[in-house]
Design a protein that fits this description.
This protein has about 150 residues and is mainly alpha-helical. It is about 75% helix and about 0% strand.
Length: about 150
């Protein structure tokens, strides 16, 4: 359980880690470390708390904790953040009586944000799985020792 808790604390920092690695290859000007900090603080940790924690317990109960399932779930959360934000903006605009419209350029920007969310969410899920380990309470058959079985039968 401690590894899972550590994974929830560390893995949302995946955008920072990716920006740090990018700095090595493209330099600090183009690595976008500032936006990575904003993504981590404003999106990743709240998404991990609001969506990731309940989804983890649900997935654990359903035994959906294989590596690809964890990565897929995290990627969907990452894509869901900009969709939720856009929906909230549209909802507030509708409530105030103003019409909500998006230009083609704005729509392309939101689509780009959804794809970036998929990628960063997937990276976060990968890091989560690597930290939490392969034994997260599901998808593992109990280990049996042949000597133990022979003694139990005889």
């Amino acid at each position: 359980m401690y590894r899972t808790l550590a994974a929830f604390v560390i893995s949302p920092a995946a955008p920072l880690l990716l920006a740090g690695v990018a700095t090595l290859f493209v330099g600090p000007d183009r690595a976008q470390l500032g936006p990575a900090v904003v993504l981590t603080v404003a999106y990743a940790y709240p998404a991990a708390l609001v969506a990731g924690v309940p989804l983890y317990f649900y997935a654990r109960r359903k035994q959906w904790l294989r590596w690809w399932q964890v990565v897929l779930q995290a990627a969907l959360i990452g894509a869901g953040v900009p969709i939720f934000v856009l929906g909230a903006i549209a909802g507030f605009g509708w409530q105030s009586g103003s019409e909500f419209t998006l230009s083609d350029a704005e729509l392309n920007e939101w689509a780009h944000m959804v794809f970036v969310g998929l990628g960063l969410g997937g990276a976060t899920g990968t890091l989560f799985f690597l930290i939490a380990g392969t034994r997260m309470g599901s998808n593992s058959a109990p280990h049996t020792d042949a000597r133990h079985e022979a003694g139990a039968r005889g």
